[in-house]
TrEMBL record, chains A, B:
UniProt organism field: Paenibacillus foliorum
Cofactor note: Binds 1 zinc ion per subunit.
Role of this protein: Broad specificity carboxypetidase that releases amino acids sequentially from the C-terminus, including neutral, aromatic, polar and basic residues.
Keyword Transport: no
Protein name: Metal-dependent carboxypeptidase
GO MF term set: metallocarboxypeptidase activity; zinc ion binding
Co-factor requirement: Zn(2+)
Length: 506, 506
């Protein structure tokens, strides 16, 4: 085929992907609307709309035409003519295509129905703390995933194939190493913290806080972070989330708890971190499958970097505590900034992951990781999960759930078949600490910037090193190019030792 | 083909239409979002999403498959086996198909581009009161429509083909008759009103009114009308509108003017009237092309019925004026209900259609109708529109615009090629008055219901007679089945004579 033929094929391929991206964006907006205020009587018809658009998207993703275009563009002669970004687009598309194509359509359909039913069963089961109600669904979901893994293929460990969906390149071998190293240090640190006589006072965090004031302060901090309100908006939902429809429209939501000054604020900063990532993806990537975060772990590193390493830092509160005091006129008059800072960093083993502090959060993840790993090496049965769960919570965190509702049933993930997702949260913490180490070198007055309310250079640094690349670099390429080395859990350990050693005077 | 073959084809056809309706609903939601608060930096990418979905919808509407299905189902043998609703679906779909199919795709594309450019040119032209900036676009749009009319065919008058798009079955002959009869009575009535010494006081309408209070009162009245907030929501936009995404999700918007107590309120009631129509369409019609109002005129009859014949009636204010006084605590203490009622019905010839009162509004429409009719009988040139406009305003309303911005350039419609749309507004007034005449017979205590704040029986009556049918009945079938006769302008004339004879003591 001539060069013209090549260019034509490539253009056609890009147009095709752009159409797929349009469908994705439409579905994304519908979901945002459903969660932020769509009238409930319209939901059943709207769900059919989602079904139609998602169905069309899936059809396009496995179509004969897609197959032909990919076959053409992956031929060595043609592939070598593509630029780096185009090669990434083709490689990513081929990976998605192969993954979708290997599952027989009927099996996939059945699985979609199964997980929809499972989520509803899980809700009831959690509500009634009755694992038996959920167990048969979970058994089928695990079995289906084992079957999918066989169809997809795997290397080393079956679970690797699932991990790769959320964190491309991540393996059990790597996670065993980094989680092992982390746990080895976190568990004794936690014991020392619990034994410390210097526990923070926290009673002042629990007063009644006006919702409008909470909103005003959340918006103020978002602005300080460099969140672009012309490319986004903040709404209210039961479960906070961020959604990047395109880099010019990245919306976040939060939840206001009237008896808690921190929940909405740190929730907003967390989602704001996700949003900064999506708002700053290079415009060149719009309309391609690379116009998104490179992995769940790197995405989570940004939400957690902003939430914990900036938002829960001492320089941050040195700068913004006065503003908070003014915002809640009178309610913090007798609370010194140091007390507030220590309170927002209280460490306390608990049963519920989403309420966990920055330190113990990782242990919650490790419990789930160990269980998922065993499910897919088939060394544990679904029936035995509650027992395994409770043992590991006792072992890692020293706490025992009173029932399965606050134990093994607490998270929605498994009902949707999202195995391999949990590790991203802890990976995010490790990536974030590792990146901070580099930022501190490259922006030597890092603490000074924060204390001066000068957060934009930090955002710009991250945009340059991480955000703008979207999925054009792999997670490994990102962490290596930013920090000069692969994922290394030591930086998170060091960060914890320094921060909590200071707070708890260890 | 066997009965099974017939049923299979019919099912396939219905599924196909349902998918088209899903695309429409997705596009509708995107437009709603764009107008209510989508971040501006995301709009250009979002517009491409709209392009993709609308393009797909158009492709489906003129596809070979659509052609085949319609050919099959319109065959006498098959058509006769359809039930009444199915026949309407096929007939409507065939009409749309033929209309779209007759325009060569390239011509249609060019026209879409032309009107997009024209709208933007119109905005500038209006802003600068410079007709010459808009004239070349309008010339092309009129020429394109004349060409389309030739392709579509016409009976009697070319303009009939355009009228039929908004008001199926409406003709120049009919409009000449009803508008003639109306104008003959309205013009002298207007003269008498202007000569009356009993002009209402209106100064108290112009105070400063708190936005939250306006919103609260608007929501209260919507609830009284029977607007279902589980199937809708009220938002704020520059230009108020109603959009029926599906009968379970019919959203309305309004605009709050801080110096005007009535603007947001009557705007909300107006859009609420449109919304009641869409919320009460029978669930059986969901997913079909009949799940919408039957015509622009009938739709407008409902917004105007609620806005003017209920909302601007004396019994309405006898019931709700106390609530309004409480809502704006103190601001209406010295204004008797009768003064408020008369003020909300002030008649005053003006230049701007959208600010016109109920009576003179129809004259604004007739100006536009006469001009459009002449454009498509080619008895006037686009270049001569400003002059014709100004003459007719002088003639019908006795006012003269100071410039083309408040004259011929005031409305957006022509820039989008929406010729034939304007008459709907006046038709709505006539339909509404005609229906009220019947309601008064069938619900003899009509005024008592309103004065008792008992609006739901009125809504239920309209739902039963009009709303539930959606587009399953034609506008003529609706007005005939509801009132026992075809469109008759006398009822609007009677209503005006009684109402304004009383208010202005004629």
């Amino acid at each position: 085929m001539t060069t013209n033929g090549f260019i034509q094929k490539l253009t056609e391929f890009k147009e095709y992907l752009k159409i797929m991206k349009s469908y994705e964006e439409a579905v994304g907006l519908i979901y945002w609307d459903m969660r932020t205020g769509a009238p409930k009587k319209g939901i059943s018809t709207r769900s059919e709309v989602v079904g139609v658009l998602s169905g069309e998207l899936f059809k396009m993703s496995v179509s004969e035409k897609m197959g032909e275009m990919l076959a053409y563009l992956t031929e060595q002669d043609h592939f070598s003519k593509l630029d780096r970004i185009e090669q990434r687009i083709v490689t990513e598309s081929k990976k998605d295509y192969d993954r979708s194509k290997r599952i027989p359509p009927q099996k996939y359909q059945d699985y979609v129905v199964l997980t929809a039913q499972a989520e509803s069963a899980w809700e009831d089961a959690k509500h009634q703390s009755d694992y038996a109600m959920f167990q048969p669904y979970l058994e089928k979901i695990v079995a289906a995933n084992l079957e999918f893994i066989d169809l997809w293929g795997y290397e080393g460990h079956k679970y690797n194939t699932l991990l790769d969906m959320y964190e491309p390149g991540m393996t059990v071998a790597k996670l065993d190493q980094v989680f092992g190293a982390l746990r080895e240090k976190v568990v004794p640190l936690l014991a020392a913290i619990q034994a410390s006589p210097h526990q923070p006072k926290t009673d002042f965090l629990k007063q009644t806080f006006d919702k409008e004031k909470q909103k005003k302060f959340s918006l103020y901090i978002l602005k300080q972070m460099g969140y672009d309100f012309e490319a986004g908006r903040l709404d209210e939902t039961v479960h906070p989330f961020a959604t990047g429809l395109n880099p010019g429209d990245v919306r976040i939501t939060t939840r206001y708890l009237l008896d808690d000054v921190n929940s909405a604020l740190f929730g907003t900063i967390h989602e704001g971190g996700h949003a900064l990532y999506e708002q700053n993806i290079s415009k060149d990537l719009i309309g391609t499958p690379l116009c998104t975060g490179t992995s769940m772990g790197i995405h989570e590193s940004q939400s957690r970097f902003w939430e914990n390493m900036i938002g829960r830092s001492r320089p941050f509160w040195k700068r913004y505590y006065g503003d908070l005091q003014n915002n809640y006129s009178g309610q913090f008059d007798n609370v010194p900034v140091e007390d507030f800072y220590r309170a927002t960093n209280e460490v306390k083993p608990s049963l519920i992951r989403i309420e966990a502090d920055e330190l113990t959060y990782n242990l919650h993840i490790m419990v789930r990781y160990e269980i998922e790993k065993e499910l897919f090496s088939e060394t544990i049965r679904v029936a035995d999960l509650p027992e395994a769960w409770n043992e590991k919570y006792k072992d890692y965190l020293g706490v025992s759930p009173a029932n399965n509702g606050e134990g093994v049933l607490q998270d929605v993930h498994w009902s949707g078949g999202a195995f391999g997702y949990f590790p991203s949260y802890a990976l995010g913490n490790m990536y974030a600490a590792q990146m901070m180490r580099t930022i501190r070198k490259e922006l030597p007055d890092f603490d000074g910037l924060i204390e001066g309310g000068n957060l934009l250079p930090i955002k710009d640094w991250l945009a340059e090193k991480v955000y703008r690349h979207g999925k054009a670099l792999t997670p490994t390429e990102i962490i290596t190019s930013v920090t000069g080395e692969e994922l290394n859990p030591d930086y998170l350990v060091q960060y914890f030792n320094e921060k909590y050693g200071d707070i708890y005077k260890l």
